[in-house]
Write a structure and sequence with these properties.
The protein is α/β, with parallel strands linked by helices and 409 residues long. Among the domains are: 140 residues, Rossmann fold, CATH 3.40.50; 117 residues, Rossmann fold. It has 13 helices and 19 strands. The strands form 4 sheets. The protein has a 7-stranded mixed β-sheet with strand order 7-6-5-8-9-12-11. Strand 13, helix 11 and strand 14 form a beta-alpha-beta unit. Helix 5 packs parallel to helix 6. It is globular.
Length: 409
Amino acid sequence: MNANCRGCGAPLNLMLCDLGMSPLANSYVSVERAAASDPAYPLRVRVCRECMLVQADEAVDAADIFAADYAYHSSFSESWLEHCRKFAAMAIARFGLDDTTQVMEVASNDGYLLQYFQQAGIPVIGVEPAAEVAAIAESRGVPTRVAFFSKRLANELANEGVQPKLICSANVLAHVPDINDFVAGVARLLGQSSTYTVEFPHVLNLIEQTQFDTIYHEHYSYLSLLAVQRIFERNGMRVFDVEELPTHGGSLRVYGCVAGSNFPESPAVARVRERERGANLDKPAGYENFQPEIERVRTELLTFLQQAKQAGATVAAYGAAAKGNTLLNYCSVSTNFIAYCVDRNPAKQNKLLPGSRIPVYNVDRMLADPPDYVLILPWNIRDEVIGQLAALRGRSRFVTAIPRLQVQD
C-alpha cells in the first residue's frame, strides 16, 4: 500500500473500500492470449485525513497502464463529443480565443476535443502518452506530443515557445500518480491571463450513488473541489470558478489560474465547497460505510443474473467499458452469466474482457440476435445506448446495476 498521501505526504490510514484483486480495466485480451491468465493487482482506495485526497493504492506503474495499445478512444461516444463541442464553443467565447492564441489539451487522446478548436481556426497542441491514439489524432491533423505530462515536459514546451491561452484536460487529473508534479507543470505554462480547465468525476457522486465501478487502477485519485483547491494552492494556483456537469455520472469542471491572476472568484466555488462540507467530505465521517453499499450492488446484480439464468433467459452486455470490467470482476461475473459483450470501438472488438473473459463483438451481433436482457455497463450513457438500440425495443429489456438494479423495457 501507499504509506503516505501522494498529495500532502500524511500517513494513509483510512480505507474507503477494498475491491479485492482485479486485472487492469483497459487491458483487453486478444484471442491469441486467451490461454494465459490475466495479471491481477490489489484494488483498494484510501482517504487522507489531512487533505482529504481520496486515492487508490499505487499497485501498477502508469507506463504499464497507458501503453501504446491503450484501448480507450474518446470519439466513440456521441454524447461525449457533443459535450466537447459545446465546451469548445463556450471557451472560445468566454476567453476570447482566436488564431493568435493557442489551446493545449493534456491527455488529448484521439483529438476528440481539439478538433473543435482547430475547426474554428485556433492553433492547438495535444499531449498524449498512448502512441496508438496519438497517431489517430495526428491523422486528423491535431499536432500531438507523445509523452506523459509533467513539470519537466512543461519546461521543454515553454522553451519551445508553447504559450497556451487555455490548457484543458478532461478525466486526466485523476489518472496521474504524481498529482503535484502534474499541476506544477500546468502552472509553469500558464500566463497571467491564461486559464486551466479540468473535468473529473465528482467523488461526492461516487459515494452518494455507489459508483464504485469508476474505481480502477488507472484512476489514482477520486477528487473533490476541497482536495483540488488544496493541490492547486500547493502549486501556485487557485480555483476561480466551478461547474457541476452531468457527464460520467456527475462531474465538476474546475477553472484555475495562477495565484496572482485577477480572475474574480465565482460564487459557485463557495456553493460547491459548502455542498461538499454538508456531505462531510471535509472530515473522515464522510467516507465511512461505503463498503456495505458496494456489497449491496453486488448482491442485487448476482441475484438478477442467477434468476435470469434459472429462467432460461439470455443476457448480453453493451459497452466494453473500464467501469464495466471493475463491476464484473468484483462480482465474479463471466460467461457463466453473460453470453457476450458488444462495443462500437473496433480496438475492443474480437477481444475478451480482462478477468471475466467475456467475448466482445460489433454491435451488429446484438441487433442480429437480440438477448432477453441487455446489461448496459456504461450506465452514465444509458439513454444514449437505449437510443442506439431502438430496434431492440419490445424484444430485449435494458438493465443497469448502478446505483441500484434497474430493469426497463
